[in-house]
Amino acid sequence: MLFRLVPPDNRHTPLLAVPKKQKLPVLPGELSLRILWGPATAGLLTFGLLLLAFPPHDAPETAYVFLVPALCWLSFLPSFRATFITFLFFGWLFYMTLLWWLRHVTLPGLAIGSLLLSTYLALWFLLARWILPKALDGSFGIRLLSMLTLASAWTIIEWARCQFTLGFPWCPLSVSQWQRPVILQGAEWLGGWCVSFFLVFFNLCIASYLHHLLVRRLQSRRGGILGSFCPDFYAGLLMLCVALAPFFLKTHEDDSQKLLRAGFVQPYLMEKWKPGKAAIHKNTLRKLTLMTSVARPDLIFWPEASTPYAVTEDKAWVESISRRTNIPLLVGAVAKSHSKNFSYNAVCLVTPNQGLESGFYAKRILVPFGEYVPDALKWFPGLDKLVGPTGSFEAGGDSRLLDVEMNSTKPQARIGSLICYEDIFPSLARRFATDGADFLFVCTNNAWFGEEGCAEQ
Questions:
Q1: Cα–Cα dist 222/225, whole Å
Q2: Of all helices (H) and strands (E), which one includes residue 208?
Q3: What region does 36 belong to: left with phi over 0, alpha with psi -120 to 50, or beta?
Q4: Given pLDDT bands bounded at 50, 70 and 90, which one contains residue 16?
Q5: Which end of the chain has fewer surrounding CB within 10 Å, N or C?
Q6: What percent of the chain has pLDDT over 70?
């Protein structure tokens, strides 16, 4: 790449002076490198490393360097348009691959949702492209401020896409470290956002260190140890020590008190909504529940939407199982409200004495395009056909605890239920805890997504 270097006072002959109106000759292959291979390499390496960091892959350490290829390309100052298109497209491919299991619910919804998620990321790369020229030639203070700004911006953008209707709070950057508990300790106070902030900041420190070794050191013409010294690198190490400190400073207590004996039924029901399968699935649930009851648990759990029909309209067979085993059942099922003509993705309590309890927990945060069409997009004709086979659900309105009477060392338990991906919303779990829940039950049905990455994610 050619630079126009002219001393400010014009007292010295410039190393390379090019008249403003004179066009530089295009070197062989330069155009294809600039337009195609540069952005393609940056996009593929960046999102390839990021994909490896997330489950079901087992390479979380790639999250510490995934931004380096993108920042290297951005240091050549491509146009803002090229920056946006590159990271929008490769981000879309990244989310399509990461969420490929979502095709079992809705393939068009997967494509549209992935594009929306990619838009959030593309905004961050636009900001990085704008800040980078100011940071590359600035002092350490300017570089540090730039790195803190970009790490904060990533965290804010990530938080934003986890909050609003057109976002999808799936796999924030912190999730990449789910099997590295040492780095997750700060989440107790600051949530997973502090982990995302640290990872982006560390990436920026590494990229700045590489720039120092390859560019700034040569420009300063300083050799030896001082020439290789880069405070940016040590700022990254300092942040790493801060992130690890809670693990080594925290005292670990033994919380091994027995609360109850829980039995879980996960029947792996496939093609559950196809006609003619209802009797088979009922029989499978009945047999597995009876087998589980032999161990005399205090409570038996069924997975999400486990009953073939709405349990409020087909409850007799479920109640008979609870009476026969003399064990309460916590059942994931579709529930209907005839007064409002709404359907809910619910968790219902069935007891041997009372049968199906009238109150149930209804899923409060539904999956866009899988369980409902966002209000902002309802005016598009035909989008209601994108939802899953059960049709569009109504969202629940409160964090209802389910109180279960049991013959146990703890005679009554207050249960907070989270349905499927609701467990990735910290505020929902926190509300149950403050309301007095004894434990949380995540009700899900992994069979819907096969042997793919959904369950681990």
A1: 9
A2: helix 193-211
A3: alpha
A4: very low
A5: N
A6: 78
